[in-house]
Amino acid sequence: MATQIFSAIFVIIVGVGGCVAYFWGANKLLDLIFPSRGVSGTAAVNNLRRQGLVRPWLFVGPALIILTIYLIYPVIATLWLSVFDRGGTSFVGLANYEWALRDQDLRNSILNNILWLAVVPAACTFLGLIIAVLTDKIWWGTIAKSLIFLPLAISFVGASVIWKFIYEYRGEGQIQIGLLNAVIQHFGGQPQVWISLPFWNNFFLMIILIWIQTGFAMVILSSALRGIPEETLEAAVIDGANPFQIFWKIMVPQIWGTIAVVWTTITILVLKVFDIVLTMTNGQWNSQVLANLMFDWMFRGGGDFGRGATIAIIIMIAVIPIMIWNIRQANKETGGH
Amino acid sequence: MAVTTGKPFVGRFGVHIAVLVFVVIWTIPTLGILVSSLRDKDQIVASGWWNSFASSSQTEAGRLPAASTQTQKDGKYVIEGNIFGDGAKRAISAFGVKAAAPTQYPAGTPADLGDGVTLQVNADGSFVLASPKAFEGDRGQRIYFASSAPPKFTTDNYQTVLFSEGIGRSFMNSLTVTIPATVIPILIAAFAAYALAWMRFPGRALLIAVIIGLLVVPLQMSLIPLLRLYNGVGTFFGVPSKTYLGIWLAHTGFGLPFAIYLLRSYIAGLPREIMESARIDGASDFEIFVKIVLPLSFPVLASFAIFQFLWVWNDLLVAMVFLGTAPDQIVLTAKLNALLGSRGGNWEILTTSAFITIIVPLIVFFSLQRYFVRGLLAGSVKGG
User: Do residues B324 and B210 share a domain?
Assistant: First the structure.
């Protein structure tokens, strides 16, 4: 353990020191190769121009190399692997995709993912918006927001344990130590094994993600609400609008862009949801989703890289529209700056 | 934004109640595991954590000693003893001999079981079973009793999970993964962000578009090729393929698009005049970056550091793919996941481990919430 701590400290020093040394050294070297001071006018101008051509690449270089190895190359390699067999050695054409069209597990996962996509972003955005509006009106709103925001710091695994404890089931008539079953038994209902109820268990898993992400939606939307010009609200009040009309007809339309951003951010998160399903059910009782199915194929029986890669591509395809929309939005706002 | 309603008092009251309901729903789950982690492990299964401040009562079944232990006293055959043996004593409130009526007789009074047989169970667990005839058979009398124990809070669970369940070691592993993986990307991203914000070079717009695109590329796309790459490198150099170095670099790579995006939008917003006057004074890009941009960017660097810290600390997927599951490498999230499998019903271990897992992020989060929120707003509202 001592070596482990030592090596971690060593890495921080070497990592940060190495970065500093690289940026400083490369910059120094550039000044030495193309000196701009102490040479004649035209040479200085020429050298300055050359420096200007090279220096940006020195700055973005390390980032570019790491991005290429860890993100750009893998995306291409995954596409490539999806037309190979389980070991990634012999070409199988579109066999993996054909399998994907027929596989029952995969079809279930896609249906469950669609269910997640339909419920979670909508629920988070809606609840986040309501809480943002309500907490704005009371003196202890900041404290309330902090507490609702808190689950965002909790890991999906931690949150799964927290909720598994709430869904805990003991046989009928016994003392229920899970909050949900205790409440239900208190009111005379039947305790249930919530996470193994087919179809409905999906919703019990979704609640965990909603619990985590509502705080995110709330904070972003709350800040957008603050940006609404006071005059528009005052005018609406003077015109005799009731609070619901003010909310739906004055406030919501003005923060439409932010709602879209929150919605798409949570949508991407939902497509990648893995930890919650793995820890709660591991895909049993018809609760499988794509990300967990892919993890499963990556390691099942020594791993099937071809099918795993194919599932990854299916997730990627679902993300692409949002990706394009994001790039367009960014281009519009920065205007190429 | 003070929107007044027609009925101000009722409206205000309703808002307070509604927010209170939300706050309660959002905090109760976490409170549940915190309280449970501090409870005695027998009490956790005996009563819901919301009852933990009351005495916990439970109905148990037991069997009295067999006939062989009987003694003769005053012409009667008597079996005596204590239900709890030498174990922890609880207060008994009632007892019975039929499963259908487990609390038929109050404690401390003799119960008539028929045929002149009497049974008395006292609150402290001591009992006297007396009969005019000798007891027979080698199975003792079946009895049921309701007992209650005073609330008991303890830190034993923490000692158990930290030192015998391996959570302490995993805590160190998580720190080992998280700190370098948080620190290393910052400088790399800051230089790239400055170049993308303030330097002119061909391909810059394309690079920005690529980074914004990479922001949403699912991690799943990277896993298989990188796993193969790591295995290949490991075999080629004859070194293990699952190493801390590997996961530090992986987290650096996965964190970079967001880091560059976040820092770039902040650095691009710095006032142009500062840069230009420094340039006129003869400062190079390197000097401008180190002496002006870096100090001014402190808030956004802090935002990113918090994000990356929370993301790496809470990550399960990357750790499961790139690190081993041996005690010297397993991180907290993976350990907790393993415990869910092996200790599924031991809630004292699960709740305590979960609380240890979430305590660091909660501290970071509460002490640095301002930076966190700022990063959140900059990262998602601007640009998209």
Answer: yes
Total number of domains in chain B: 3
Residue B217: phi and psi, rounded to 5, are: -65, 125
Is the residue at B3 inside a domain? no
Location of structure tokens 């003077």: A238
- Please tell me the distance from the alpha carbon of residue B200 to that of residue B204, in angstroms, as a whole number: 7
Closest residue to A137, CB basis, from B15, B27, B229 = B15
Q: Which residues contact B295 (CB under 8 A, 6 or more apart)?
A: none
Partners of B215 on chain A (C-beta within 8 Å) are 326
Nearest to A119 by CA among A195, A198, A193, A205: A205
- For chain B, counts of helices (H) and of strands (E): 15, 9
pLDDT over 90 (residue A74): yes
pLDDT in tens, B139-172: 778 888 887 777 778 888 898 888 888 898 899 8
Decide if B355 is inside a domain: yes
Res A156 pLDDT > 90: yes
Q: Which of B44, B220, B225 sits opposite A315 (nearest CB)?
A: B220
Q: Do B357 and A158 touch (CB under 8 A)?
A: yes
User: Which of A22, A49, A165, A167 is the best residue to mutate to test the B interface, defined by the most B CB atoms within 10 Å of its own CB?
Assistant: A165
CB contact under 8 A, A175 and B47: yes
Cβ contacts (< 8 Å) between A7 and chain B: which residues? Answer: 176, 244
What is the value of ipTM here, to two decimals? Answer: 0.89
Q: pLDDT tier at B189 (50, 70, 90 boundaries)?
A: very high
Q: How far apart are CA A290 and CA A105, in angstroms?
A: 9
Same domain, B326 and B344: yes
Whole-structure pTM value: 0.84
- d(CA B88, nearest CA chain A) in Å: 21
CB contact under 8 A, A7 and B244: yes
Q: How far is A211 from chain B (nearest CA, A)?
A: 7
Domain boundary residue, one of B85, B118, B149: B149
Closest by Cβ to A166, choosing from B32, B244, B310: B32
What would the pLDDT profile of A219-252 be if each residue is shown by its tens digit?
A: 999 988 888 888 888 898 888 888 888 888 888 9
Of A153, A219, A323, the CB nearest to B213: A323
Instruction: List the domain range (segments joined by +) for residue B261.
Output: 158-380
The answer to whether position B271 is within a domain reads yes
Using alpha carbons, select from B166, B152, B156 the residue that is nearest to residue B348.
B156
Q: Single out the residue in B91, B119, B149 at which a domain terminates.
A: B149
Query: Are B141 and B174 in the same domain?
Result: no
